[in-house]
């Protein structure tokens, strides 16, 4: 698919018709509070919908309760195994690359500042981490799973943000496009898939082509569940590279909101890391993964660790060698990765399950396989010629 400025502009004007209509009806009928109260008790696939649920919400939940019919379950299982093998690396890439990349898009940073308290960045990080964990659980789409209800609620959350920003005239639609538009939804999908794979490659993680493609495929499924236009979304990693390059060239740059959100993120992870001696490694790792230009835009401080962190790929290479040569080493490293991921998520959530709800108003104070043969190792698609 050929991407042009005109086609991207079209995506900037488009929202999510189904979710937007559902949220508009809930607000018009004064049923948002009822919906939020009842939906706190709907957190797993197969759970009966509660009595008293507004009809429009019940219709939405019925329409979105199953994954798209084109899902290849073999690819989804490959993605799950890829995640299990690389969970700590993926968590690192999500935290130190994908999230800061969101902040380097000024209108996205502005929107996040309007809809998430700047004093509580752990909420968004916890929601993102928990959402990914739900997706990669065995039986993510089967009875008892938490993934589909979470996706249904996130989609309505996005629609409610569009509703508030437009209704309260807090968003310059003419200049910025529809809030959480199709272009930004696809851009976010690229951050959490292709950019994560790029970051793993930069960290020196050896990935098979099949594993990388399966991980990207899983996020295509996520996009479909979140209302992304499937006619517009890139189908392959090469197409994804072209989309992401054009998206970033169109929008990336410095902003006060982006720098503020990044500072809050750095502070958050410095609190999670025990002691203070290695606190600067947080900033150094962000700078290493997003590059100096983006790091400067986000006001990421330079530290003495900036040089030392470049040794991380070599260290991870040694660990991967141990994993490849010893089944006991592989088991130990997999368990360590699992424990690190659990520690990170439990630290962010304070041990609680995150509940997604439709906000009834915005915060006014903010204004707005484990062994990879060398010949089958995945390398990122090259930058597109734009």
What features would you describe in this structure?
The protein is mainly α and 386 residues long. The protein has one domain (5-360). It has 19 helices and no strands. It has helices spanning 5-12, 17-28, 32-39, 55-63, 73-103, 106-115, 121-135, 147-167, 173-176, 182-192, 194-202, 209-225, 237-251, 256-272, 280-290, 292-297, 305-308, 312-325, 327-349. The chain starts with a helix and ends in a 37-residue tail after the last helix.
Give the domain tally.
1
Largest pleated sheet: none
Overall form: globular
Structural class: mainly alpha
Tally the helices.
19
Beta-strand percent range:
under 5%
**Low confidence ranges:** 335-354, 363-370
Q: In which range does the helix fraction lie? A: 55-70%
DSSP summary, beta strand count: 0
Distance between the termini: 14 Å
Mean pLDDT: 80
- What is the succession of H and E elements? HHHHHHHHHHHHHHHHHHH
Radius of gyration of CA atoms, rounded to a whole number: 20 Å
Q: In brief, what are we looking at here?
A:
The protein is mainly α. The chain is built from 19 helices and no strands.
Provide key terms for this protein.
single chain; 386 residues; mainly alpha
List the helices and strands and how they pair.
Blueprint: H1 5-12, H2 17-28, H3 32-39, H4 55-63, H5 73-103, H6 106-115, H7 121-135, H8 147-167, H9 173-176, H10 182-192, H11 194-202, H12 209-225, H13 237-251, H14 256-272, H15 280-290, H16 292-297, H17 305-308, H18 312-325, H19 327-349
Helix pairs in contact: 2-8, 5-11, 5-12, 5-15, 5-19, 6-14, 7-19, 10-12, 10-13, 18-19
